[in-house]
């Protein structure tokens, strides 16, 4: 493992040089390609107006998202009612999804405790 550290350091140095050399040109190209999204002039008032528009647009979309949630919930209820018609593949996908959710939860708990498994800091 220790023999790989210089190799890793050289790769990181090489990558940082590429970013240093090409970063500003990438930034300029990115801004040029997306200039139709940029508000001119960029004033504080314009930023506040855009923030309010985003907030109220999100607020207005709540009923649509709620109706979509109700449709998904109805679909899930329908699956539970007709569970005898399920194929083993569907059950397997559901089990894998549940396992993935549990794994992300456990990973989040470990990260939240500072990467300790017991919860005690040494």
- Give Rg in angstroms: 25 Å
Number of DSSP helical runs? 4
- The percentage of residues in β strands lies in under 5%
Number of domains: 2
How would you spell out the order of helices and strands? HHHH
For the largest beta-sheet, the strand count, sense and barrel status come to: none
* Strand tally: 0
Taken from the alpha-carbon principal axes, the silhouette is flat
The percent range for helix content is: over 70%
How confident overall, as mean pLDDT? Answer: 87
Protein name: Mitochondrial ATP synthase subunit G protein
Family: Belongs to the ATPase g subunit family.
Subcellular location: Mitochondrion membrane
Pfam family, one: ATP-synt_G
Would you kindly provide a written description of the structure presented here, covering whatever features stand out?
By secondary structure, this protein is mostly helical. The chain has two domains: 4-84, no CATH class; 86-117. 75% of the residues lie in helices and 0% in strands. The chain has helices at 4-33, 44-60, 62-81, 88-112. The chain is flat and about 60 Å long. The protein starts with a helix and ends in a 10-residue tail after the last helix.
Task: Name the descriptors.
122 residues, 0% strand, mainly alpha, single chain, 4 helices
């Amino acid at each position: 493992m220790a023999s790989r550290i210089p190799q890793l350091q050289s790769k990181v140095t090489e990558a940082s040089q590429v970013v240093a050399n090409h970063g500003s040109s990438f930034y300029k190209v990115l801004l040029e390609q997306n200039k139709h999204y940029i508000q001119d002039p960029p004033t504080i008032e314009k930023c506040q107006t855009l923030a309010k528009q985003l907030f109220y647009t999100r607020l207005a979309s709540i009923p649509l998202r709620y109706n979509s949630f109700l449709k998904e919930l109805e679909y899930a209820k329908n699956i539970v009612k007709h569970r005898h018609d399920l194929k083993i593949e569907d059950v397997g996908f559901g089990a894998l999804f549940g396992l993935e959710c549990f794994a992300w939860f456990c990973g989040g708990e470990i990260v939240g405790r500072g990467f300790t498994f017991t919860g005690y800091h040494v």
